[in-house]
């Protein structure tokens, strides 16, 4: 197993006199803040804790924080400590800073923090990341699929794919293959009901824009996907969090919220929920669809982790017959993060509206990549690759679960899929900062709540959390917090 990377510069302090200890520490924390690895609102260590952690005097920590205050990166709150400030975008020379419109929605900064961790670990190990390790992906398979498309011999079609805009609804070959793929999981959708997108994230955005108007109420899972909270907030929606358990949402809470607020939409992950790994039960799915019918709201079902899940797992769109449900998925999680190919299967009377919104957002989508994904589906390449990934993930999950439980953690939901939702017994936001200093990127529980409430839980990625060195550091830092 890999050993953790050397700790960041704050733990490799030089005493050669070229820079003071406080200057080195200030540079370390400033870099973390500017990279958004310490999000606005994060609390810095207390003076005593910082002195102990870095092996310096309390006076050095005070001098460090004074420098960060002078740079405008932190703020002091009386009797509470030092906190990372929200930084406004710099104004052009001679311009006054732009004022935010009154009552404009404030996008949760947690989302950008999580995305930055997802897109690149900055040289750190990532037990909390949201993707599969690059070594698990099959680059030769992707190259072979592209070669097949390029060497297909259909020069007229290839020219259209490579040199012109694709069809607004998406590549017909891929939509045919997707219709078959959806049938395999019980979702009956004709190719004309399917529209391709730039990943599942764009599909979520396009459906939201087609269905909603600013001020509409939207039901969301809690805990849930921080980026989805931020995206809906940016669109001006009112979020109605519904507690999410191992078998699905708390239906009593959902019914009370629906009766009082008349939501237009519920956004959920039915299968291998992020971050809990929970699976919607058949009974919960039936009751949920009854509530949607009674209170007249639509459902977006995000099936991003479909390729890691059993085909027989209940899908709302299968039970609903695509009447109120919009079924969304993509391929970046299983093929490669850079392959931004997604899709939505929609009720027949909504598909033309969605195509209109897509054209305004991105004109079309890359037909060349879509045809390569179609090849992966048609030739069984994706199915065989997914089977290999699932087998490898099962083994990794077993190791990660044993290590987590050995470190005194408990799983809130049965461990399955890519993610585990772990009870640690300490504030995981503070713990995440300590582990960051040890070279580990984690995903504290506060990132998965709309209002950033403190949490003793964290999300782990079973594929990237199987390093015993991480769990040793986890135990050391957690125990230090308890003392």
UniProtKB/TrEMBL annotation:
Biased segments, Low complexity type: 89-98
Domain HTH gntR-type: 19-87
Organism domain of life: Bacteria
Disordered: annotated span: 87-108
Gene Ontology MF: a single term: DNA binding
CDD domains: AAT_like (cd00609), WHTH_GntR (cd07377)
Keywords recorded for this protein, A-Z: DNA-binding, Pyridoxal phosphate, Transcription, Transcription regulation
InterPro entries (alphabetical): Aminotransferase_I/II_large, HTH_trans_reg/aminotransferase, PyrdxlP-dep_Trfase, PyrdxlP-dep_Trfase_major, PyrdxlP-dep_Trfase_small, Tscrpt_reg_HTH_GntR, WH-like_DNA-bd_sf, WH_DNA-bd_sf
Similarity remark: In the C-terminal section; belongs to the class-I pyridoxal-phosphate-dependent aminotransferase family.
Protein name: DNA-binding transcriptional MocR family regulator
